[in-house]
Amino acid sequence: MRTLIPAARSLGARLTDRKPGPLWAGASVGKASRKNGDRDRAQPRVEIPVCEVDPASKDAARLRARGQFLARQDDWEQMAAEIRTADTSRALTAGLQSQAVLMCEGARQDITEAIAEGVDRGDALSVQAAVASLEPLLSEQPGCPIIAYIVAMAHVDAARAWKGTALTGDLPPERDEAYARHMAAAARLNDQFDPFEHETPLWAMVRCAVLEVDPQPHARVADDFEDLIDLDPGNPHHLVQFGCALRPIRFGSWEMLEAQARRTALRTSDVWGVGGYTWVYLGALAEDQGAFRRLDADLFVEGLHDILSRHPSQATVNRMAALIAYRVSGQVDVGGTRQRIADCFGWVVQDHLRELHPLIWAESPARASAPCFDKIDMARLGQTRALATLTEFFAPAPNAGRRLVFAPDGMRPVEGG
Fold first, then answer.
1. How far apart are CA 171 and CA 180, in angstroms?
2. Residue 319 CA to its chain's centroid (Å)
3. What is the pLDDT of residue 326?
4. Neighbours of 104 (CB within 10 A)
């Protein structure tokens, strides 16, 4: 590690010490510091192609619909075969989501909706019945890790629904009991399959999902997530979830987060360069700004360059821009770590953004993989948020022009109406 990091810092200096163009002068996301003379300047009009239904969202919707269709047809054998193929190939969507996971989400979507309705009513029996409706599948297809994964994650869905956003110690007794019952059921299923024996990241995901009911989660979190990442290093969702799990309020500490982020960068360097460090920290920052305490800005920015150079899709670019805008915005110390990361918004947008994906901007970064249920309203919300962020960031620039035009060859300021 000591040999990698100095070399990484050297590369980081070459990549991140580029002087920003004039458009960036004095700007920071969410905090466009304007002098009195600047306040009356007309804000630039943003002209950018809008992809209302981007390929990543379309892929995710198609895969969820396929899983739901096969479940409603009771064609679990065909479903297991299709999910197994996607799982074995580690297939990802354009938005870098697991195709196997998305199909599994669709397969249990009707159950998940029934769970949500039962939890809203406080009806533990109806929630149990919804999940139990899947359990005959375990005897119909014994030894099938795909079917067992769907059942196990239905129990996890139920447990998380009962828990909500509360800490487990703060739950009322009846909700705590229901939470514990479903997590215990998922943990029992987890013990039946080894993710390496079956060569499946899905079961490594179950191990990580039930960590919170393990007697010593702090001792297992690194090993369990490392297993998952080793099985599927190209899926950034695992790295993000690892960072989220390493927060002090979960199973780690800020010191552990920093050490594991560096370790992950080393272990995934063939896939992400130094991007593993950035993905892990993005998972922590999405939930807790305290992650800035140990973050190495040079390494983070270098990793951001590596991610976008390896996956320059507009889905990835929009997600990175939105994450920086929403999670690093606000009051920043001039010259500090947070300022350094916030300033990345400028080059991410200017160098990489070519079209707007509103649904990505509408999502909460902490729930980036969650489906959007109201497409029309979410698209409108996302477009409004994105355009307002772009306008605010670039408005203070003295030569921003009357329009900011995004074209296939990049963004440029244009004078005139």
1. 11
2. 9
3. 82
4. 27
| Helices then strands, each counted (H, E), the chain | 21, 3
- Asked whether the beta carbons of 386 and 322 are under 8 A apart, the reply is yes
Tell me which amino acid residue 237 is: H
Residue type, 107: A
Q: In 10 A of CB 3, how many CB atoms?
A: 8
Exposure string of 278-290, with b = 16+ CB inside 10 Å and e = fewer, is bbbbbbbbbbbee
pLDDT of 167 reads 66
Q: Which pLDDT score, from 0 to 100, does residue 36 have?
A: 41
CA distance linking residue 146 with residue 72, whole number of Å: 17
Q: Is 92 helix (H, G, I), strand (E, B) or coil?
A: strand
Q: How far apart are CA 2 and CA 9, in angstroms?
A: 11
Residue 149 CA to residue 95 CA, distance in Å, equals: 23
Written as six digits, the tokens of 415 are: 């004078």
Residue with tokens 């300021």: 413
* Pairing state between β 410-414 and 403-407: antiparallel
pTM of the shown model: 0.85
Question: 368, 35 in Cβ contact below 8 A?
Answer: no
Instruction: Count CB neighbours of 219 within 10 A.
Output: 10
Residue 265's SS3 state is helix
Q: What is the mean pLDDT of each run of 10 residues along the chain (417 residues)?
A: 36 35 38 42 80 86 97 97 97 95 98 96 95 95 94 97 78 91 94 92 96 94 97 97 96 97 97 97 90 94 97 93 79 75 92 92 57 61 91 72 83 76
List b or e across 24-38, with b for residues whose CB sees 16 or more CB atoms inside 10 angstroms: beebbbbebeeeeee
SS3 category, 250? coil
pLDDT of residue 2: 32
Any idea which residue has 């019952």 for tokens?
181
- CA 141 vs CA 144, 182, 329: distances in Å: 6, 21, 50
Instruction: Give the helix/strand (H/E) hosting 34.
Output: none
Give the C-alpha separation, 252 to 225, whole Å.
Answer: 12
Q: CA-CA distances (angstroms) from residue 26 to 120, 194, 319, 390?
A: 48, 53, 24, 14
Q: How far apart are CA 359 and CA 352, in angstroms?
A: 18
The two structure tokens encoding residue 171: 């739950």
Please tell me the predicted confidence (pLDDT) of residue 11.
35
